[in-house]
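haha ok so turns out i had the wrong file open the whole time. this is the CORRECT one, sorry everyone. sequence first:
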Amino acid sequence: MTLHELNHLPKEQLQEQLFRCCGSTTWVNKMLPYFPADDMVEILEDAEEQWWQCSEADWLEAFTHHPKIGDVESLKKKFAATATWASGEQSGAAMASQQTLEALAKGNDDYANRFGYIFIVCATGKSADEMLQLLLQRLPNEPADEIQIAADEQNKITKLRLEKLLS
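then structure:
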């Protein structure tokens, strides 16, 4: 899709495309006034600014629109609209050993039990072992610190997806 095409979508279709980039309803609605946009740099700056104006509840909503790292079945079923992007983002998990996948599954469960949401990481360019290391490093974090880290990771994912949308 080109920027020109995105700028001229009806509101409902624009919302749908933005929602593919970030699963926060509030963020999507905050982004609508910024269209039509002049260029990609402007969109990325507005996206980040609006993301940090969202509440923790908005962040948590966005997190629910991601499959667990390495969870291929979840990716296929629940996230069909973003499955192509998410599978590319998580391609490092596709080549992981069974041991690493099992450790990721356990780590994901431990993380969800500790923080109440799934482990969010901008997985692009990371191997499964790297993602596992990040998960294990972040598990001891205090909840107030971890939500900020997870929100920052979501911000990175959103910006990458906006770039993919307009590539």
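Residues 75-83 have pLDDT under 50 and may be disordered.
again sry for the mixup
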